Write a sequence for this structure.
């Protein structure tokens, strides 16, 4: 018989080998995650940073305009961005699964379909910006804030049209692991936005108009760079030029786009409605400004989580296309571990520097004090931000947007908003009460999405993804010989 000491030694050796193998698998998976996530994070931080920089310039121009800008950015722009981002995420699902299955030529068709659908959608939504003043007055905002918001809404029209092309292109490129170019272009866009704002606002003394012109010009520089990259031949296997096939079989893509749009809109509008509730407080300017600035701080960290959301979507979609259910489960674990670790770091930073960050956006001591009072709640929101976006990304990658839309509606609108309204208006908590309601809604959503992810049969999802790709491919008039097997 084998000596007990030798048995123990062999068992330890096996454990060490398994541990070493696990570390290697985590390292390999992490590289795949960050290959998509890091460029995505950079591009989102820069894009959102441009909005925040503009807010900072306006905040030092006028307190009323700061509140008006906060209303437009948080309500109108978030409303439209939510719809277009959600609808573009259908491109992320389809392109990611097509890339995983080696059907790369279909990706260019999906991109063009997204442009068609998004362009029509945004044009239909334009009255939100054209009649901004009337809408804000209709929902009961102060007249001075409503007038300022309506004026700023008109300046946002050229800006929001960049979403039609930019969002879909980002999904298209990151699905084929080519989104580093977006990070470089986004960094360039942000780099020129700050000096351009300084020049127009202060050098030419254009004030509010200068800040908004700078925002539109810099955002369209990014889109032009993306067009040059795609049309210039850097995507030879996935972009074969414009085709009438993009106008065929639009209905299934519209259905997936709508469910994607509803899923993300219910999430983004949730915060917008909470800002609207803050506008009915006794001191509306202070409440709106403080709440909007806190949301912007929250959103800075959320951009990192959205980057990992993109990683989750791409990894799940790619592995579904390849038919590898086991790899999906492992990737989800690594994604969650990575995102939670980042969330803990920002949780601590927010607790330490909460009030000091407020002065980047305002000179008003009352606004800064209100933000300081919210810093603890803001920290917990940031921590939750590190979990649920990854779970949402998993759902997008699997094409389960419809299920998540129902979850978001119940958790946010049946639970979160009523709780926030009750605590905000029927207690002395006011803005704190609204934020507590927001956290409660996000917490219930996180728990529910976690349970759904845990209970999902990924082998069944592999079959569904295969059927979807086959249906879309067969309905296209493209020749199978044209399909590239790029990996």
């Amino acid at each position: 018989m084998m000596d007990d000491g030798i048995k123990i030694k062999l068992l330890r050796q096996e454990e060490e080998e398994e541990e070493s193998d696990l570390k290697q698998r985590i390292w390999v998976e992490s590289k795949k995650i960050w290959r998509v996530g890091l460029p995505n994070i950079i591009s989102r931080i820069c894009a959102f940073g441009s909005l925040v920089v503009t807010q900072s310039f306006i905040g030092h121009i006028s307190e009323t305009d700061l509140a008006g800008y906060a209303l437009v950015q948080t309500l109108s722009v978030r409303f439209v961005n939510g719809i277009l981002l959600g609808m573009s995420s259908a491109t992320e699902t389809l392109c990611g699964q097509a890339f995983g299955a080696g059907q790369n030529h279909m990706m260019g068709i999906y991109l063009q379909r997204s442009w068609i659908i998004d362009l029509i959608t945004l044009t239909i939504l334009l009255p939100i910006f054209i009649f901004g003043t009337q809408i804000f007055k209709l929902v009961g905002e102060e007249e001075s804030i409503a007038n300022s918001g309506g004026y700023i809404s008109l300046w946002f029209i050229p800006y929001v049209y960049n979403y039609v092309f930019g969002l879909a292109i980002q999904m298209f490129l990151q699905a084929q692991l080519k989104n580093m170019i977006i990070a470089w272009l986004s960094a360039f866009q942000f780099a020129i936005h700050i000096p351009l704002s300084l020049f127009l606002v202060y050098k030419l003394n254009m004030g509010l108009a200068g800040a908004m012109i700078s925002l539109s010009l810099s955002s369209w520089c990014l889109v032009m760079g993306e067009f040059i990259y795609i049309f210039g031949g850097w995507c030879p296997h996935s972009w074969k030029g414009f085709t009438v096939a993009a106008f065929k079989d639009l209905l299934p893509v519209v259905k997936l786009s709508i469910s994607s749009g509803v899923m993300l809109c219910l999430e983004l509008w949730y915060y917008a409605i909470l800002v609207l509730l803050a506008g009915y407080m006794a001191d509306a300017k202070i409440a709106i400004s403080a709440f909007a600035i806190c949301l912007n701080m929250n959103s800075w960290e959320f951009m990192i989580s959205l980057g990992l959301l993109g990683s989750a979507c791409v990894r799940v979609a790619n592995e579904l296309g390849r038919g590898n259910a086991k790899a999906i489960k492992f990737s989800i674990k690594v994604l969650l571990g990575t995102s939670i670790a980042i969330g803990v770091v920002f949780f601590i930073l927010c607790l330490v520097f909460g009030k000091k960050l407020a002065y980047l956006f305002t000179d008003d001591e009352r606004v800064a004090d209100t933000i300081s009072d919210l810093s603890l709640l803001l920290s917990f929101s940031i921590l939750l931000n590190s979990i649920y976006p990854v779970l949402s990304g998993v759902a997008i990658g699997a094409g389960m947007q419809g299920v998540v839309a129902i979850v978001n509606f119940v958790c946010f609108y049946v639970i979160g908003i009523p709780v926030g309204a009750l605590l905000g208006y029927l207690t002395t908590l006011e803005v704190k009460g609204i934020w507590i309601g927001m956290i409660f809604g996000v917490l219930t959503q996180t728990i529910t999405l976690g349970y759904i992810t845990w209970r999902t049969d990924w082998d069944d999802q592999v079959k569904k993804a295969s059927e979807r790709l086959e249906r879309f491919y067969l309905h296209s008039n493209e020749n199978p010989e044209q399909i590239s097997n790029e990996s």
In short: The chain is about 85% helix and 0% strand. Residues 34-477 form one domain. The two ends are 51 Å apart (CA to CA).
